Fold this sequence. Notes:
By secondary structure, the protein is of the alpha+beta class. It is 24% helix and 27% strand. Mean pLDDT is 90; it is low at 154-165.
Amino acid sequence: MPEISIRRATAADSKRLTRLVRGSAAYRGPYAVMVDGYQVGGAYIEHHPVYAAVDDADDRVLGFYALLLDEAELDLAFVADSAQGLNIGRLLMAHMNCVARLAGLTAVRVVAHPPAEGFYLRTGARRTGTVAASGRIHWDRPELTYDLTGPADASDPSGTFADHS
Length: 165
């Protein structure tokens, strides 16, 4: 099990995050249209809270998320195929909830990739609706919400992440 840190991503991480998105096995087949040509640009990373989980031994990006504070929405969340099953996603969602709470948000909306709905439910989100297919996306997507108004979940190590902004 690698030693993992979560750090604020920088514009220099753009290519690594983009490769992680485009290479995700979860977006092969009919879902490929969602990431075809997608780029996690440096300006985007600098403008939004984007955090990367990295292997401390080699600074390899194992996963990342992007939070849109103005919209109170989780915009991106990816875990490298090679890091699946290591609880990286759970760690990232706990961190995201902490960052959102510290920013004063009371909830975070997620429009999920359909196969990822179970993951979000297991990490504390609840289903709130469905976003209808539109544009290049030809399937309905689950809409979920992380409610941040109650006490922090025991699995949310808020104190651990308070100084990583």
